[in-house]
Amino acid sequence: MTSPFEIDFDGALIRGEAAGFGIPVVFLHSGVTDRRMWAEQMRQLAAEGYHVISYDRRGYGETETSDVPFNHLVDLETVLDRLSVHAAILVGSSMGGGLAIDFALEHPNRTIALVLMGTAVTGAEGYDVDEEVEQLEEAFEYAKQRGNISTANRIQAHEWLDGPYGEAGRVTGPVRELFLAMNEIHLNHAPLTQEERPEPAFHNLSVITAPTLLVVGELDCSDIIAIHEDLSEELENAFAVVLEDTAHFPSLERPDLFDPILFEFLEAVTGQGEDDGEDGDD
After folding, report:
1. φ and ψ at 24, to 5 degrees?
2. Residues 156, 197: one domain?
3. Are residues 135 and 122 in the same domain?
4. Backbone torsions φ then ψ of 270, nearest 5 degrees
5. How many domains are contained in the chain?
6. Range of the domain at 236
7. pLDDT one digit per residue (tens) for the chain, 282 residues
8. Going by DSSP bridges, is the β-strand pair 24-28/51-55 parallel, antiparallel, or unpaired?
9. 278: in domain
10. Count of H helices and E strands in the chain?
11. Buried b (16+ CB within 10 A) or exposed e, 34-69
12. How far apart are CA 191 and CA 265, in angstroms?
């Protein structure tokens, strides 16, 4: 069972949770969810003896913040420092993956490994957005500008949870309910207008040497898949996987596919969980 924590820092009360005492694994949520998207992976890895950590970034979940100057990278550094974590494995989804990449560039000695799922990259250039995605994003902006948060939320569920190329509502049940609940908080949050962004990572990716697992769903947006493919070529120590019949959130939609790949990668990186062999027969 995880324990909650609060960190009072630079005009924000950052809320998160942690469990375990082993090798640190920090989970970073996407731009349309919050830390709850990683609850099942947190639970399982804590049981395996890892020190698991997740938190809600400013504008998401339970974290409270004023509209003050801030930097998500500095916030992440502060969370690790306050929890006495020198180095960690970073597991990031979408914008959380972009944050993990930024951290790896800024603090290579604090980055044990990276797991990047449907990742963004700060400063990414030259990736075309196709017509289906453009239509959904235009519809989202139209609904949001008119204050129709419920409709805007459903449009983003279509784009990111279902995938933009099929029917809305492909993913049902508790996963859809959780997505809508997480994204509703973000959509209703007061705008944060003073974010300070780190240097773009896009042209510096080749310097990252940490072992990296790249995961993307085959139903994700074409530009996200293209970034995934380019990262698999650019990062010298990367292992790339495309998961069938999933969109932007394989960890939520198909944990039966995502989790074994994650756990096998962590075991390979850390040696934790390996079979030490049985004693000889009596």
Report:
1. -70, 135
2. no
3. no
4. -105, -20
5. 2
6. 3-127+191-270
7. 899 999 999 999 999 999 999 999 999 999 999 999 999 999 999 999 999 999 999 999 999 999 999 999 999 999 999 999 999 999 999 999 999 999 999 999 999 999 999 999 999 988 999 999 999 999 999 999 999 999 999 999 999 999 999 899 999 999 999 999 999 999 999 999 999 999 999 999 999 999 999 999 999 999 999 999 999 999 999 999 999 999 999 999 999 999 999 999 999 999 986 554 444 343
8. parallel
9. no
10. 9, 9
11. bbbbbeebbeebbeeebbbbbbbbbbbbbbebeeee
12. 37
Global confidence as pTM: 0.96
- 93 and 28 part of one domain: yes
What are the DSSP E strand ranges found in the chain?
Answer: 3-9, 12-19, 24-28, 51-55, 64-65, 88-93, 111-117, 212-217, 238-243
Residue 277 lies in a domain: no
Q: Nearest-5° angle of CA 264, CA 254, CA 5?
A: 75
Domain co-membership, 158 together with 44: no
DSSP helix/strand/coil, 107:
coil
Place of tokens 């993307």: 216
Residue that is last in its domain, among 149, 164, 188: 188
